[in-house]
Specification:
This protein has 20 helices and 16 strands. The protein is α/β, with parallel strands linked by helices and 468 residues long.
């Protein structure tokens, strides 16, 4: 079977490799000419992804995988392009911006009108910003493949989208560009990806997949295709339900993280150690509270809830509030740094150089998309501090040795609790490197041994009266 994968990013390229390994002839498409050249020359743009280099090399050598900038006719088209989030000021400018965006879409027809709330900035509000799903890349990908559609083809949208996108926007763009009728001449389904960075290849094949077609035949054909390379259960539903399922999964995580972060803020006020309290609460067999931190990152969890809020803002009050709580955490961390700076002034010292440890949004991966760690670093720089960042998994922050980042620092801010830091950071070793003895811990990383050797540790979620 000939398969054309549109978009060779974090999801599209691993998917293309897995589908090629299953014996399909795969053409990967991306508009980035440099990326295509790099792949054709044996390079790889995704690092720290277990097994990807090996499976990619095998796919290219077997000639089951090719890459190009231009689509070709195929039996199956997979759209795996980004769906970023709009961010514009929450003001009268929002309406003007929305109108302007709608006007730039050429010949969108009824689909653009029907999905106006999804295509342009929507009603999801957070502070003084509005957020919404930007479906520009999805629409363009559908336009790009429409001329190549033939009777019997299957189109699968894997990108995370607002509810209704597959059955309205994508469907009408494909029909308009191909002259074919969806559900009769060609088939269309949504199959949201559900993978974890660092384990993408494993999860593409082993996780259960939810497949939602625009009609029953579309669902059945898409299920049959995914069963050629997915070992988990492949479960069918309709397209809009499949779209919402993905958003619900990530919103569930976001809301629960917000609860943990709110507990952290409460504990700071009450003089309690939130990490101790959570550990004790989790001894209950039906309680599993997550850990608080400096915010929520990753392309999915920090973004997807807005797609629900945008669609039904009047019903998504809890979801919206959770987003506000999690989005506020980097600023709260800035407040903790200010507390540390005040303590330094009281001790007759000044904090100038900050060592920020961790840039990725979660431990032991190199994914820095929507990372709250980077937002904190940016806030500290804007505050006037000289900030040096270290992350062993993010290439641009791994070149400088950890010891050099710590050397002469006045303040250490722990933002991502990579496992490697547990072995490389020791109280006495770090004390010898730093100029001052101040730490801000956003992850419950530093135990009481650090206080014993003279560090002044400001801890997220730990009130001044709490024992550490």
């Amino acid at each position: 079977m000939k398969v054309c994968v549109i978009g060779l990013g974090y999801i599209g390229f691993p998917t293309a490799c897995v589908v090629a390994r299953a014996g399909h002839d795969v053409l990967g498409i991306d508009v980035n000419s440099d990326l295509i050249d790099k792949l054709n020359n044996g390079g790889l743009h995704i690092v720290n992804e277990n097994g990807l280099a090996e499976i990619a090399r095998e796919a290219f050598l077997s000639r089951h995988l090719r890459v190009s900038r231009c689509p070709e006719p195929a039996d199956v088209f997979i759209l795996a392009v980004p769906t970023p989030c709009w961010r514009i000021p929450d003001s009268v400018e929002a309406a003007a911006a929305k109108k302007e965006v709608a006007a730039t879409v050429q010949d969108s027809g009824p689909a653009a009108d029907a999905l106006g709330q999804c295509r342009a900035p929507g009603e999801a509000s957070n502070g003084n910003l509005r957020f919404g799903a930007d479906l520009t890349y999805v629409e363009q990908a559908a336009r790009d493949i429409a001329p190549y559609l033939r009777s019997g083809n299957l189109v699968i949208l894997e990108s995370t989208v607002s509810p209704g996108t597959t059955n309205v926007l994508v469907r009408e763009v494909l029909e308009a560009g191909s002259g074919l009728i969806c559900g009769r001449d060609f088939y269309l389904a949504h199959a949201p990806e559900r993978v974890l960075p660092g384990r993408i290849l494993e999860e593409i094949t082993k996780n259960d997949r939810i497949i939602g077609g625009v009609n029953e035949e579309s669902t059945e054909r898409a299920i049959a295709f995914y069963r050629t390379f997915v070992h988990g259960d492949v479960v069918g539903t309709d397209a809009t339900t499949a779209e919402l399922v993905k958003l619900m999964e990530n919103t569930f995580r976001d809301v629960n993280i917000a609860l943990a972060n709110e507990f952290a803020l409460i504990c700071e006020e009450l003089g309690v150690n939130v990490f101790e309290a959570i550990a004790l609460a989790n001894r209950h067999p039906r309680v599993k509270i997550l850990k608080p931190g400096p915010g929520v990152g990753g392309h999915c969890i920090a973004v997807d809830p807005y797609f629900i809020v945008e669609a039904v803002p009047e019903r998504a009050r809890l979801i919206s509030l959770a987003r506000q709580i999690n989005s506020s955490m980097p600023h709260h961390v800035l407040g903790l740094v200010r507390d540390a700076a005040q303590r330094a002034r009281e001790a007759g010292a000044a904090i100038e150089k900050v060592a920020a440890l961790g840039a990725s949004y979660k431990p032991d991966v190199g994914d820095e998309r929507e990372s709250p760690a980077l937002e904190v670093a940016s806030l500290l720089t804007a505050e006037g501090y000289s900030v040096s960042i270290h992350d062993p998994y993010v290439r641009r922050f791994s070149q400088t040795p950890l010891t050099d980042v710590l050397s002469g620092a006045d303040l250490l801010v722990l933002l991502t609790d990579h496992q490697v830091y547990r072995s490389e950071l020791t109280p006495n070793g770090v004390r010898k490197l730093m100029r001052r003895n101040f730490i801000v811990d956003t992850r419950g990383f530093f135990d009481g041994e650090w206080d014993k050797v003279g560090f002044d540790v400001v801890r997220l979620g730990v009130g001044r009266l709490a024992h550490t």
